[in-house]
Design goal:
Layout: E1 7-12, H1 16-26, E2 32-37, H2 40-49, E3 54-58, H3 70-77, E4 82-86, H4 92-100, E5 104-107, H5 113-142, E6 146-151, E7 156-159, H6 161-167, H7 171-174, H8 189-202, E8 204-212, E9 218-228, E10 237-244, H9 246-260, H10 270-287, E11 290-298, H11 301-308, H12 310-327, E12 333-338, E13 341-349, H13 352-367, E14 370-372, E15 375-377, E16 381-388, H14 395-411, E17 417-419, H15 424-441, E18 447-456, E19 462-473, E20 477-479, H16 481-491, H17 494-514, E21 522-525, H18 528-532, H19 536-546, E22 554-559, H20 560-565, H21 567-580, E23 583-589, H22 596-601, E24 606-609, H23 611-614, H24 621-637, E25 640-643, H25 649-658, E26 662-663, E27 672-673, H26 674-688
Parallel strand pairs: 1-2, 1-3, 3-4, 4-5, 16-17, 19-21, 21-22, 22-23, 23-24, 24-25, 25-26
Antiparallel strand pairs: 6-7, 6-10, 8-9, 9-10, 11-13, 11-16, 12-13, 14-15, 18-19, 18-26, 18-27, 19-20
Helix pairs in contact: 2-3, 11-12, 12-13, 15-16
The structure holds ligand C2E and magnesium ion (2 copies).
Ligand C2E binds next to β19, α16, α17 and β23.
Length: 692
């Protein structure tokens, strides 16, 4: 290739004299360099080496077969233009060549250097133009943007393949028409007036517009129109270039959906919730209405997730989301914050009674069992309610206060709701302190076990004791497990505390054995989470073995709700405990919702009737009826019965008539530290001794 400012010419000429004459003439021009080829073979060889910008070919030059050389040269010259030196344009061969087009001609006998140079430059110029035109055509053909070319009056004269692909029209169907035929009707006349006014004034317009394809699909496009040849009256053509935005819009919508919704349940997420609440607050400020914000936390989700895995956990969340959706009106918003926390926003409620009704309805739907992967799950939810304007002026405050109220609902017994009260903040702080102190309590040895005797009513014999944990808080004194066990369960400290209790009980049993007390059985309360831990049975077996204790010396107590939260898993776990040989009783019986079909299949030994049914059993007819029903059930299922919380003789007398029952309560003994129990047992045995 010649350097940028010299043009390299290949002169193909048989006659040496003619060739030399041309070359000598062109020497005057430093921008032209001539290479001479005397035969077609030489010409093709030189072209093969490259670097030639223009070929000047003798049209008469024969190849070996005597055919004109033109085809071979054209094929080899690539982008270099070919100038045909011919004896005359009327020449037969010349005409033939002419039909191919794109060639330049020079009289064969012309040796005028200036004329030759003019033709050379002209050929180069034409080649450049042709290349440009080819490139433009390529762009027109292959771009992904649709292109419409119209004349000055706006009649379509050309469209490209992308236009056809996007609009569904063939060129024949649109050429001669006005681009209005694509109009979707979404833009009004005013829109088009504005567009034309800009176009006429400035020569270009761009913007988003909605058009309609041949099949009727309405789609968004980004359209840029420019006037060709000046604007206003000077414009000769208009070129419209448009990009189909449908995909982009779809992506945009997907992204926006993802950013504003929870992927698992499809519910609005925190971001969208915040937006809606803020919007609702603005409206409420204007029209003086109220907004309710409910903070929901599932009661037993963590147990399900920890024990059955997150796949089942996820399914459960989807079911909950669906139930919430069903339970609410369209104008309400249900959002998921993540984990097992959901928010419900109810704009425009009138009375708190209305909110309470909704909360009750939600609690009821979420309390219905869910069957997933062969498990029947009881989740339930605790709901905290804060209202605008009473409990907060902005989103964050309302959320915080609804959360606080939710905690209170959780403490008061789960699957219930609670309205926010400004005193709760103090209490929330208190709880936080409690949590901190609880974390340190184990290491500091602040826990202690108390024991409360259980007595067979008919014989007066002490059948066992229940271990009840106490927390000796350095500042607050003795704290009841009813206060700190729920906190320990939520923070997962329960695993460590539960283990400590089991170890301490075993240690104590060894101690008592050394002191001569060999036949005592201790009942240990095991929390829901601890119960479902896959290692519980092994841990217990290991403890019994290490302390050389008989399994019959240990009993575990599970609350009814623990067992019924996941009956199928409970059955498995209970079987493993039974295989070890320890006893199991269901605590607080009557307060949960036992399913009889499960109860029959559970390997249990004892039912402990909740204290609420024992209280005033002699005067409360309902309680008496419930206890007698439970007794009947126990008899049918061959289970022993313990009545909890017997406080007075009237209750005892009533129970004694009911049947063979074991009792536990303040009437016999308060829970007491281990060292006091020995003394208590001694006096009790003396008292029960014959003749006393
Ligand atoms: P629970 O297992 O139902 O224990 C019986 C509760 O009733 C005990 O309360 C006991 O002190 C109390 N009680 C016994 N007799 C009477 C009576 O005549 N009248 C009245 N009013 N109450 C009586 P406590 O010790 O405060 O324990 C409360 C609950 O905390 C227990 O209920 C149990 O669910 C839980 N808990 C206690 N210790 C542990 C433990 O080591 N681990 C776990 N996970 N939970 C425990
Ligand atoms: Mg108990
Ligand atoms: Mg109980």
């Amino acid at each position: 290739m010649a350097s940028s400012n010299t043009t390299s010419i290949l002169l193909v000429e048989e006659g040496e004299i003619a060739a030399r004459a041309v070359m000598a003439g062109l020497e005057r021009f430093p921008d032209l360099r001539v290479t001479w080829a005397a035969s077609l073979a030489e010409c093709l060889h030189t072209l093969g080496e490259g670097g030639i910008d223009v070929v000047m070919l003798d049209a008469e030059l024969p190849d070996r077969a005597g055919l004109p050389p033109i085809d071979a040269v054209l094929a080899a010259s690539g982008s270099a233009p070919v100038i045909l030196r011919t004896a005359g344009l009327s020449h037969r061969r010349g005409r033939e060549v002419e039909r191919r087009g794109g060639l330049d001609y020079l009289a064969k006998d012309c040796i005028d250097p200036a004329a030759i140079r003019r033709v050379v430059l002209q050929a180069l110029e034409r080649r450049t133009q042709a290349e440009d035109a080819r490139l433009h055509a390529q762009v027109f053909e292959h771009v992904s943007e649709g292109i419409t070319i119209t004349d000055a009056r706006g009649t379509i004269i050309s469209v490209n393949p992308a236009f056809c692909r996007i609009t569904g029209y063939s060129p024949e169907e649109v050429i001669g028409k006005n681009p209005r035929l694509l109009s979707s009707g979404r833009q009004n006349d005013e829109f088009y007036r504005q567009m034309w006014s800009t176009l006429l004034r400035t020569g270009s317009w761009s913007g988003e517009i909605w058009n309609r394809t041949k099949s009727g699909r309405i789609y968004p496009e980004w359209l840029s129109i420019s006037a060709v040849g000046g604007h206003g009256a000077a414009a000769s053509h208009y070129i419209g270039v448009f990009l189909d935005l449908s995909n982009m819009k779809r992506h945009e919508e997907t992204i926006s959906h993802l950013a504003h919704h929870d992927a698992l349940t499809g519910l609005p997420n925190r971001l969208l919730l915040q937006d809606r609440v803020q919007h609702a607050i603005e409206i409420a400020r204007r029209d003086g209405s109220q907004i309710g914000l409910m903070f929901l936390d599932l009661d037993r989700f963590k147990i399900v997730n920890d024990s059955l895995g997150h796949v089942v956990g996820d399914e459960l969340l989807k079911v909950v989301a669906e139930r919430l959706r069903q339970a609410l009106r369209r104008s309400d918003t249900v959002a998921r914050l993540g984990g097992d926390e959901f928010i419900v926003m109810l704009p425009g409620f009138r009375t708190t009674g209305e909110l309470a009704d909704v909360a009750e309805k939600i609690a009821a739907t979420l309390d219905k069992p869910v069957t997933l992967a062969g498990h029947t799950l009881n989740v339930g939810a605790s709901i905290g309610i804060a209202t605008f304007p009473r409990d907060g002026q902005d989103f964050d405050t309302l959320m915080k206060n609804a959360d606080t109220a939710m905690y209170r609902a959780k403490q008061t017994g789960r699957n219930t709701f609670c309205f926010y009260d400004s005193r709760m903040n103090e209490q929330a702080l208190d709880r936080l302190k409690l949590e901190e102190a609880l974390r340190r309590a184990l290491e500091r040895g602040e826990f202690e076990l108390y024991y409360q005797p259980q007595i067979a009513l008919q014989t007066g014999e002490v059948t066992g004791v229940e271990a009840l944990i106490r927390w000796n808080h350095p500042e607050r004194g003795v704290i009841s497990p009813a206060v700190f066990i729920p906190v320990a369960e939520e923070t997962n400290l329960i695993a460590l505390i539960g283990l400590w209790v089991l170890e301490e009980v075993c240690r104590q049993l060894v101690g008592w054995r050394a002191a001569g007390l060999t036949d005592i059985r201790v009942a240990v309360n095991v929390s829901g989470r601890q119960f479902l831990s896959p290692t519980l049975a092994d841990t217990i077996a290991d403890l019994l073995c290490r302390h050389r204790l008989a399994p019959s010396q240990l009993e575990i107590e599970l609350t009814e709700s623990t067992v019924m939260a996941e009956p199928e898993r409970a059955i498995d776990q209970l079987k493993r405990l039974r295989d070890i040989g320890i006893q199991v009783s269901v605590d607080d019986f009557g307060t949960g919702y036992s399913s009889l079909s499960y109860l029959k299949r559970l390997p249990l030994n004892t039912i402990k009737v909740d204290r609420s049914f024992v209280r005033d059993i002699h005067t409360q007819k309902d309680n008496a009826a419930i206890v007698s029903a439970i007794l009947g059930l126990a008899e049918a299922l061959d289970l022993a019965i313990v009545a909890e919380g017997v406080e007075n003789e009237a209750e005892e007398t009533h129970l004694r008539q009911a049947g063979p029952i074991t009792v536990q309560g303040f009437l016999y003994a308060q829970p007491m530290p281990a060292d006091r129990l020995m003394g208590w047992l001694a006096t009790c045995r003396n008292a029960a001794a014959p003749g006393s």
